[in-house]
């Protein structure tokens, strides 16, 4: 599975075409639109390229404006909003065919000491011994030959650079009403140090930003017994935010704890926190997604 991780690393390596302007590509896939986590992470990489090395991203807030075409390059325009004594702000607009498909603002901070506290990591089963969600999904698709399987296949990428292991797996074929809560272990499939030219914290930030889009929207559908295999569902990320609290490695297991406090008006709000295996809370996410059901 190192081919999948190498493809992700290549996708996160942008081409500089002018000052503060970068171009990114989308890998070939059965996915019929650009994966939201991809453009989110690519925009972060574009902004990181314009910021001094002593400043790390601590938050990113983004809106998805139009579906991205996976066959068209994405142009990222970085606007250097502010460079202060401690904080740096960047705005990035991603466009295709001259139209914005995504915009985001990121804040970077120099490292400094301060007050610190965190909530405790939930007590749950570790990743060892849990099944691979991607393999479980593949077997479900192969076992079906109807429109449901076709729809599900079109909503998942062909290569899986992120390994995902659910503590309590969702049965996407026969979903049942359950609490809007999930716990999954995630990590990159392979050693980033062995495959990346620069194994630094900014790269791990971008990879986690990419991975944070997995499973999050689905959490808001759990109480309604709806899954991504339902052809009547029209899902789409509307906005996405991430905050980084501490250092980590994206190729080591992280527990992604998710919940959804509310869904209404065809939108679902989901929240997530990432813990290292030793219990450190290193990142948090919030996303609102479109979960529109058609007749």
Q: What tags apply to this protein structure?
A:
globular, alpha+beta, 295 residues, Porin, 7 helices, single chain, 12-stranded antiparallel sheet
Report on this structure.
The protein is globular and about 55 Å long. It starts with a helix and ends with a strand. Strands 1-2-4-5-6-3-9-12-11-10-8-7 form a 12-stranded antiparallel β-sheet. The chain has a single domain, classed as Acyl-CoA thioesterase, double hotdog domain (Porin). The protein contains 7 helices and 12 strands. Strand 10 and strand 11 form a beta hairpin. By secondary structure, it is an alpha+beta fold.
Assembly classification: single chain
- Between the first and last Cα atoms, what is the distance in angstroms? 39 Å
CATH architecture: Beta Barrel
Total DSSP E strands:
12
Helix content: 10-25%
CATH superfamily: Acyl-CoA thioesterase, double hotdog domain
**Largest sheet entry:** 12 strands, antiparallel
Radius of gyration over all CA atoms, rounded: 18 Å
Secondary-structure element string: HEEHEEEEHHEEHHHEEEE
The pLDDT mean sits at: 93
How many helical elements? Answer: 7
Instruction: Determine and state the CATH class.
Output: Mainly Beta
Structural class, by secondary structure, is: alpha+beta
Based on Cα principal axes, name the global outline.
Answer: globular
Question: In CATH terms, what is the fold-level topology?
Answer: Porin
Strand percentage lies at 35-45%
- The unreliable regions are none
Strand order of the largest sheet: 1-2-4-5-6-3-9-12-11-10-8-7
Quickly count the domains.
1
